[in-house]
C-alpha cells in the first residue's frame, strides 16, 4: 500500500520508513528537512494538502512533533507543530479519503500527577483520563491532539485510527533528554519518590507502527515493555549513586537556576521526576497482538551495554 510518513527523516521516522519499505510498501517520507520525498512543513496547511493531493496515500503515519525543543524554540512554535500540525494532517486525511491514520502519541498525554493509575496500583491503562500538564508543552500538546482525534473518531468513523501512547524509547543510537538524566555522575531523585520508568526498544516501536499500518485493529494502545525500573534500580544497574533531594529544595534550586540562566529546567520539573506515567501494556499484547521483544529492564540493559555504560 501507499503510506505517507510525516516526520519521515526524524529518529523514529527513519526506522519506520525503512521497515515499511522493506515490507514492500510504497512509502513517502514527508519532512521539513532536505532529502525528504516530499518537503512538507506541517504548520503550513496548503503544503500538507498539496502533498496528500500529489501522493494520494492510503495510510498516513503522523510522527512529526517537537520532542526535544532547541534553544531557539518557544511555546508558540511547539504548539504550531504539535497541535496545529496534527490538525492539518487530520484535515488532509479527511479531505483526501485516507483510510487509516496512525499517530505517535505519548504516555505524557496522561500527565504527571500524584494519583496516576490510582485504580490499578499505579499502572496507567488506556481508559484512564488524559490530563496532560499545562506547564509541559509536550505533555499538554499530546493531550490536546488526542482530544482532537477523539472528536474526529465520533464525527468521521470512516477514518480508522491507531493511536500509540509510547513510553521512553531506547535503542543503540538513542541520545535524548531522558538518557541525559542517566549520564550524570549521580542520578537525581526526589526524596520519597521511586520515579519509575517504562522503556521500549526502538525496533519494537518500528514493528508496532508497521503492524498498525497493515493490521485491522484500531484504537489507542500504550507502547512499553513489560515492567518498570525505579530510579534506584537504574542507578544500581549503572553502578552510580543517587542524589536524593526533598521536593521543596529541588523546586527552589531549579527556580534560582532558571532565573540565572544556569538551567533550561524550571521548578515545574519536579513533578516530571516525581510522578512519571507508568504504562501498562496488557492491551498492546492482548488486543493489538504485539508482545515487545524486550522488557523495560532488558531494553535499559541493552541500551546501557551497547553505549558502554556498564
Question: What series of H and E elements makes up the topology?
Answer: EHEEHEHEEHEEHEEHEHEHHEHH
Q: Kindly report how far apart the N and C termini lie.
A: 43 Å
* Structural class based on helices, strands and sheet pairing: alpha/beta
The averaged pLDDT comes out at 93
Residue fraction in strands? 15-25%
pLDDT < 50 runs, ≥5 residues: none
Helix % is 40-55%
Major β-sheet profile: 7 strands, parallel
- What is the molecular shape? globular
Q: Compute the number of strand runs.
A: 13
Placed side by side, the strands forming the largest sheet appear as 3-2-1-4-5-7-11
Q: Give the C-alpha Rg.
A: 19 Å
In DSSP terms (H or I, runs of 4 or more residues), the helix count works out at 11
InterPro entries: Epimerase_deHydtase (IPR001509), Lipid_A_modif_metabolic_enz (IPR050177), NAD(P)-bd_dom_sf (IPR036291)
GO molecular function, one term: UDP-glucose 4-epimerase activity
EC number: 5.1.3.2
Protein name: UDP-glucose 4-epimerase
Name the descriptors.
Lipid_A_modif_metabolic_enz, NAD(P)-bd_dom_sf, UDP-glucose 4-epimerase activity, alpha/beta, isomerase, 11 helices, seven-stranded parallel sheet, 310 residues, EC 5.1.3.2, two-stranded parallel sheet
Task: Write structural notes for this entry.
- With 310 residues, the chain is α/β, with parallel strands linked by helices.
- It contains 11 helices and 13 strands.
- It has a 7-stranded parallel beta sheet with strand order 3-2-1-4-5-7-11, sandwiched between helices. Strands 6-13 form a two-stranded parallel ribbon. Strands 8-10 form a two-stranded parallel sheet.
- Helix 1 (11-22) packs across helix 6 and helix 2 runs parallel beside helix 3 (75-95).
- The longest helix has 21 residues, at 75-95.
- The chain starts with a strand and ends with a helix.
- This is UDP-glucose 4-epimerase.
- Its EC number is 5.1.3.2.
- InterPro entries: Epimerase_deHydtase, Lipid_A_modif_metabolic_enz, NAD(P)-bd_dom_sf.
